[in-house]
Specification:
CATH topology of the largest domain: Growth Hormone, Chain: A
CATH class of the largest domain: Mainly Alpha
Helix content: over 70%
Largest sheet: none
Number of domains: 2
Low-confidence stretches: 1-12
Shape: globular
Number of helices: 18
Order of helices and strands: HHHHHHHHHHHHHHHHHH
CATH superfamily of the largest domain: MFS general substrate transporter like domains
Amino acid sequence: MPRTQSLNLKIPIKLPKGAWLVVALLCVVGCLNYLDRVMITTMRSSITDSLKINDAEFGLLTSVFLWVYGFLSPFAGFLADKFKRSRVIIVSLFVWSAVTYLTAHASTFNELLLTRALMGLSEACYIPAALALISDYHRGTTRSLATGLHMGGVMVGQSLGFAGGWIADKYHWTDAFGFFGIFGITYSLVLVFFLKDVGEKNKDEVEDIVDKSEINFMTGIKNLFKHRSFNLLLVFWALLGVVGWMLVGWLPTYYKEHFNLSQTLGGFYATAYIYPMSFVGVILGGILADRFSRKNPKGRVWVPAIGLCIAAPAIFLASSTDVVWITIIGFALYALTRTFSDTNLMPILCMIADPRYRATGYGVLNMFACLVGGLGIYASGVLRDAHIDLSIMFRVAGLLMLVCAYILYVIKLKYNTK
């Protein structure tokens, strides 16, 4: 077992005041973050009919968001390291909610495309800042659970994406953007009074507040990449992104073709249990990681590694049977245990990266996951055109998860932050 290096950080025994309030407030923001970005995918026909655009143009709406979001994530994370994290979060929410509201008034494809690019710009600032702020408040054995609860809020937002399609069918597609845009703007104004950085009201609560005066973007990037463990974590998260995007993109098709189901039933089998099981997974992964970390700092590394070692054979089983209920159980087990990694990525990063550049580091991880994940979707499409069976691609995904588990095993920790 790799040895854990220890750095004597002054870690508060008691949580700062408002630590769980911050998590609760950010759960709502995390929900909005994903709801506002994904609901456009559920109203394709309403938008294409209204604006007279083709499917290629509609696909570009999602692609431009992902490109802007991915490329700007490192700098967006840096903003949260350089300035008050709470203010970055509030401004991010206000801007993307304003953009969401403006989307309701887009009357041409170019206007809609511009709003999606602005959405990617403003939303990129949120996740790194939010997870870094949660880590600032939860520096003891509550960090993984706090992160998991926030990720649960994110998954609620993903699962509520259907609301956009429902509103579009019942009323008009612009109404969904108008409603959630106004809601987000209002909520951002509420956060001004309640969301604060750790120690902002009482500096005596925390003994190791980071000095932001000398924080520099290029210095931070060099600082991160000079550590082997950060580079390993980068590879880990990128490969896991390939697996995630591949399964999300092709699982409905797999059910439809392999079991001769209708498109509706195939989509139901591929999604109905994924979000509920993932929601349970991020909470369970947080509880287990916090519990094991009390005895061993690598507890937050072992839990996701073990989760991947369970998820990999589950995918093998699910893609190697002609019994539909066994396939469902396999992919449900994957959804449950693979998300242990989502919960513990930032806690692991906190044990690797310089505390001054945690948000920047998460932004870099986000960027590579988006870029490599997008390439993974494209590559799987090329393999499909070459008549490679989806079951084979899913088994490759299982092998990639075992590689990811091994990468976690060899990572060396720099900071002993239980």
